[in-house]
Input
Amino acid sequence: MQLTRYTDYSLRVLLYLAVDQNRNPPVTVDELSQQFQISRNHLVKIVHELGQRGLLLTVRGRGGGVRLAKDPSEYRIGDIIEQAAALSLTARRSAAF
Output
């Protein structure tokens, strides 16, 4: 099985957040972008979608950032891969129109 970049980046974000889930202040998109050498704009889209799917909690403004919405033990990688693959497919179809 080959993962799309979208799925790969989604997993990277979730794993990074799981390592230090109680961090204060939360992790910023800029930090994630620097850590993984990924475009900030691309990560903003991924983090937004993961937040809408209930996988992340996002806090806007000063002192804001992202953190996991639940305990890391409640996440299943297979489910995350399925969701991210579906989001990636939807994004590609939207871009085609």
